[in-house]
Amino acid sequence: MLSFAVAASCACTGRGTTGATGTGHSSAARNAAAKSRQKPGMNHPSSASSNATSRSTAHSNPSAAGGVVGQAWQGGVTTVMTTIITVELSPCKEKMQPSLTPLPRPDSLPPNTTGNVQMAFELRDHETLRLHSPAEHVLQVTLNRPESANAMNTQMGLDMLAVFDGLCADPAAFRCVILTGAGEKIFCAGGDLKQRKGMTDAQWQAQHLIFERQVRAMIACPIPIIAAVNGAAYAGGLEMVLCCDFAYAATHARFALTEVTLGIMPGAGGTQNLPRAIGTSRAKEILLTGLPFTAQQAFDWGLVNRICEPSPLLDEAVATAARIGGNAPISTRQIKHSVNTGMQMDLASALMFEIEAYNRMVPTEDRHEGINAFNEKRKAVFKGR
């Protein structure tokens, strides 16, 4: 048995009253306090039985367990009486889980830091991804399995998770992200069904958990993400497009959620993000039939913002990303946060949330820089502070 002492105290302002916890402790409380003053770690023959008794009486009579602090109003001053509580913990065979302390908001931190830990996003290629910066403040992530139609295997899920978790931890690394696929015909064909052939149920679910985490990391990413859809985006490929903030598509791009034809259903946000993008009725038709649709239809329905010829697709996406990257990064992150969160609220609550997001930018250096640059007729240089 593990024993340690804890000091508890409180102050109450109950004028002229002492109540059930008045100025005097019960005899049981005094005995508990006396026992607790014994040296820590000293075991006494009667400790097991007395502690068991105190545990059983703690619920029915808090004073008897020494857990209630007496207080009295005397001459306008609250007198606080403190008791020492002895707590016993039974040994546990399982590892104790560490308590989690919320980190400061990313926008409140200096660049490349999270709390006291230095964080730096590493710009490097992964096994299934190519990463490079085509313009200042812009990151391009290319799905790089062209021999397998850029299909999502376990490694791609892990690589995507690492990239977007890294961006969540270091939001000052870049100001806009472009997601595209290698080659000219396919953005992403969805899950790699060849790898999945022969998987046990447990293996299938373990892999899918990685994809789930990847999707959540993409949605949680505070940096704006543009999908440059260079070809077919089927199943999980379309679900990745739906995780982006908006999309440009090549003229020959095609889209589909084909999971229903395979005896499964979309499980990476498709049934939730598609109705939000194009409306419930149309989304149900796409989900229930598994039929593909064209880039023009995607544009007409509001799924993509722009249709481009294949060659200039990336150039147009980079130009837009660079324009976003030239704006104040705290502003762009707060705008994305306000829109995404506000869309889940009623209008009155969303308007209040917007003001809260707005007020966080008032004391920033970038706000002063923007106003000064306007009045001095020069281009603003934003630092993300």
Structure description:
It is built from 13 helices and 16 strands. By secondary structure, the protein is α/β, with parallel strands linked by helices. The longest helix is centred in the middle third of the chain and has 20 residues, at 201-220.
What are the main properties of this structure?
disordered N terminus; Lyase 2-enoyl-coa Hydratase, Chain  A, domain 2; 4-stranded mixed beta sheet; alpha/beta; 6-stranded mixed beta sheet; 3 domains; 13 helices; globular; 385 residues; 2-enoyl-CoA Hydratase, Chain A, domain 1; single chain
C-alpha Rg (nearest Å): 30 Å
CATH level-4 homologous superfamily of the largest domain: 2-enoyl-CoA Hydratase, Chain A, domain 1
Helix % is 25-40%
* CATH fold category name of the largest domain: 2-enoyl-CoA Hydratase, Chain A, domain 1
Major β-sheet annotation: 6 strands, mixed
Strand content: 15-25%
Are there runs of 5+ residues with pLDDT below 50, and where? 1-30, 32-118
Which CATH class of the largest domain applies here?
A: Alpha Beta
* Tally of discrete structural domains: 3
Distance separating the two termini: 52 Å
Order of helices and strands: EHHEEEEEEEHEEHHEEHEEHHEHEHHHH
Structural class: alpha/beta
Mean pLDDT score: 77
Shape annotation: globular
Main-sheet strand order equals: 7-8-9-11-13-16
The number of helical elements comes to 13
Number of strands: 16
CATH architecture of the largest domain: Alpha-Beta Complex
